[in-house]
Amino acid sequence: MTVKQANRNRLAADIGGTFTDVVAFEEGSGRLLFGKTLSTPSEMVEGIATGVEKAETRFADANLFLHGSTVAINTLLERKGARTALLTTEGFRDAYEIGRINRPDAYNLFFRKHVPLVPRSLRFEVRERLLADGSVHVPLDEPGVEAICDRLAALDIDAVAIVLLHCYANRTHELRVKQIVQQRLPHAFVTASHELSQEYREYERSSTAVANAYVGPVVSHYLRGIDGHLQGAGFDGAFLVVQSTGGLYESDQAQRECVRMLESGPAAGLIGAQALCRELGLPDAIAFDMGGTTAKAGVIFEHDVLTTSVAQVGGYNEGLPIQIPLVDIFEVGTGGGSIAGLDVGGALKVGPQSAGAMPGPACYGRGGTDPTVTDANLATGRLASDRFLGGEMHLDVGAARRAIGESIAAPLGLSVEDAAHGILQIATTKMSYAVKGVSTERGLDAAAFALIAYGGAGPLHASGIAREIGISRVIVPRAPGHFCAFGMLHSDLRYDNVRTWPCELAWVSFSDLEIIFQELAETGQKALAESRVAVAAVDVQFAVDMRYVGQEHPVTVDLPGDLIAARDLAGIKARFDEIHQQRYGTCAPDEAAEIVSLRASVSGIMEKPAIEEIGKGGDTPPAAASTGLRPVYFGAPQGWLDTPTYARDALLAGNRIAGPALIEEHASTTVLLPGDVLRVDRLGNLDIAIGGRK
Length: 694
Hints:
About 30% of the residues lie in helices and about 25% in strands. It is α+β, with helices and mostly antiparallel strands.
């Protein structure tokens, strides 16, 4: 079934910790309409509705509604999920808590291991046992499962995760346990691990299933609320959610497999950055997204968004592994709303606590009294009090200076502007860790990449971050404050399937390999055919997880069709060696390798909005673009400098501006530091050559 074709508009909404962004694409005219409003934490859909209204469009005029949100990841990180129980194979009750027994920070006396989402008292053992090949060693004890359900009912359990040993090879027992639990606990949200992951590694699979159950009631209620609002507003198209891969899936599936949308907003930004790179002919770039609460970075390498098969949510030291395909993102708790303060030793720190949308930074005038990064940008003149969000929202300079003065400047014996500049320097250094985390730590030279900066606050700090790392080129796309929502318009329907299939490469049967690849592809193609969305084409990509014999952890190797068709084992091995060298700085061409898992990604390619060119001009910006001078504090030795300001919408392709300067637009401001030189390209991007690099 496909949606009716009367309405050809698309709506995309991205909810962040501080702002909600909406982009509407009118397919007939090719126009993009933008709306931005403060997020409404108590009722998220209100923020979406306000954003749609500000974009001067209606839900009823769209045939597709695309959505990304931080609700799943925030529920997980803030530990505000459902009361969850775990049912697992007898004898493996503690595997979820024991984990990998690794201690990443070996010499830290204050190190804390990860804290499981489900305490031991809510983990229950099911009598059954499968062997690694899927054969039944101990039959399922169904009366025992029913008895456990009686205990769960008495414990007022809201969600149940089911993780049985080796169910990736045989899902029969998990399916039956889920049937029993749903019959006995009809109100509970129930997840079976094979529905999310068909890979080995019991701990990672357990953690993934538990996380899905833990956030499930919150996320499914949230998505149903949006769905109800859409229907009430006359929308009768398809409601699609952005996955952590950057692909789209239907909201019905998202309500069951909530964990797949953990990084939905940042993933959409990376898809937008990839689309921009494609237009610019740029093979490699680092995408940097700074919003009100966090800063994120990901990589486009050789035209592809780098992905991973498992991520540590909450950080490597104390985080919980999630074993699903997702974009490779590094995140730090630094955004425009990050609170600055003094630690126990009296040193200045920034984040990770955020003022969020309510009460927000002190300058918002909504009751906030803590100094934030946004207050520091305002106090140093980088932001104008009367031009924020195009003048829709007035910022209180006095409140920002008071907050910084009382909490930071006075205790440290600094002027307000020096304290504010210090806040910005610390924030810049912290955010550079995100960029290094997806580049240098992955074996890539960050200095060789262009930095694409977006998010409402990204362009404010991009030049400083580039200097910190040694990057020579920064690109600020049009409408950077709406860029993640814009990226959703370039996303495709996507279904990823994986199956554990251990086999030494030298003994691989290509016939067996092709059969499994075909089964995985057919699963994705079936899901695509059942969707309510018309697609222009179908694309299938295959990959394998490989490692050297004797290794523990694999790397994912994309397999082009020609390698499979040619049955080229040597070519596959060479490709694996190359990726291993790039990731770890070493490889072993003479050592035997093995395949661990097989992957198939099926994408339904959707029509994309064109990135239009802007009008041409000369080197000098037109007079209409100049909006005056404003004193801006750049720290020692420059101090306060009278800095020219420009209206971005009035700039033309070919215009050049030397820093210091500020380029202002509705939802963002780009800061050119002294020594920077900006050129406006044919698509309206701000292409900045960074001066004074370290």
